[in-house]
Design brief:
There is one protein chain. The protein has about 280 residues and is mostly beta strands. The protein has 2 domains: about 5-15 and about 125-270, no CATH class; about 20-115, Histone H3 K4-specific methyltransferase SET7/9 N-terminal domain (Single Sheet). Helix content is about 15%, strand content about 40%. The chain has 4 helices and 20 strands. It has helices spanning about 125-130, 165-175, 195-205, 235-250; strands spanning about 5-10, 20-25, 30-35, 40-45, 50-55, 60-65, 70-75, 85-90, 90-100, 105-115, 115, 135, 150-155, 190, 210-220, 225-230, 250, 255, 260, 265-270. The strands form 6 sheets. An 8-stranded antiparallel sheet has the order 2-5-6-7-8-9-10-11, with no helix packed on it. A 4-stranded antiparallel sheet has the order 1-20-15-16. A hairpin with a 5-residue loop joins strand 5 and strand 6. It is globular. Residues about 1-35 and about 140-150 have low confidence and may be disordered.
């Protein structure tokens, strides 16, 4: 059997995964699916009024809803740290609000238009960087061939720490954090995610997997792993193995105002076995 682990994004840049949970006081409504831009998704009844809902990536929204989307005044608390409290329109941050920034917990007034922050200069990522593919090759060469199998791919280099990434790749990493202050850095695997992915390849080599899993690794200001949270429907034993592997990797801490601070590293894993 030849197996492969495919990663559509190293740091949760692509699709959400995991089941969504929602709570509202308006039962028996038609159900919808709402996908937040580059974030999680909400599956549940069409909500109007005031309600609370958890998105598939763990983000929690509480506030005003209209036709099943955040609309009006509400607060989104992010799994990657920080929160936004302010104006929403049609499911997007739109208008004035207050951001609590990840890591530093500093608060500042911000302004959004169509989910894009406009009170600071926007950091743009080139299309080439956003669509890049970096592969991890298997250590086994097929019989009679010197070509190794491609087993993992990511939009970011798998064997480089944050400081080794290009400025555009660093912007790509930062763009996954919805509440990161300008100039701050998120935590990151010290030598890239290669060691975790090598572990995953070995783990599923004899398993037929079609699984998605979100892994959130909390790292303190001294680069110690303080917790690992997983969101998946996969077998608990496999989930715990992946969480243990993610917790054993060494990380660099986040940087808030030039000083080490706590933060969260997300791994958005799409595991697929090819026979």
């Amino acid at each position: 059997m030849r197996s492969a682990v495919f990663l559509s994004a190293l740091l949760g840049l692509a699709m959400p995964c995991g089941a969504a949970l929602a709570a509202s006081n308006t039962p028996n409504q038609p159900e919808i699916q709402l996908r937040m831009p580059a974030r999680g998704s909400y599956n549940g009844p069409i909500i109007n009024g005031i309600a609370k809902a958890r998105f598939s990536n763990g983000d929690m929204y509480q506030g005003e809803w209209k036709n099943g989307k955040p609309d009006g005044i509400g607060t989104m608390s992010y799994m990657l740290g920080g929160s936004y409290e302010g104006e929403w329109k049609n499911g997007k941050r739109n208008g004035k609000g207050v951001m609590t920034f990840a890591g530093s917990e500093r608060r500042a007034e911000v302004r959004f238009v169509d989910d894009q922050r406009v009170d600071v200069d926007a950091e743009r990522v080139s299309a080439a960087t956003a669509s890049a593919r970096f592969w991890l090759l298997s250590g086994d060469e097929p019989t009679g061939s010197h070509i190794r199998n491609k087993v993992v791919y990511s939009t970011l280099p798998l064997d480089r720490g944050f400081d080794e990434l290009t400025p555009d790749q660093q912007r790509l990493v930062r763009s996954t954090y919805p509440a990161l202050d300008a100039g701050d850095q998120p935590p990151y695997p010290l030598k890239g995610g290669k060691e975790l992915y090598k572990l995953l390849v070995q783990m599923i080599r004899r398993m037929e997997l079609m699984e998605d899993i979100l892994v959130y690794v909390a790292v303190d200001a001294e680069a110690n792993v303080t917790s690992v949270t997983t969101m998946t429907t996969m077998d608990p034993k496999l989930r715990d193995l992946i969480a243990a592997g993610a917790g054993l990797i060494k990380y660099k801490p986040a940087q808030c105002g030039g000083q080490p601070c706590a933060g969260v590293v997300p791994f958005n894993l799409h595991l697929r076995t090819l026979l």
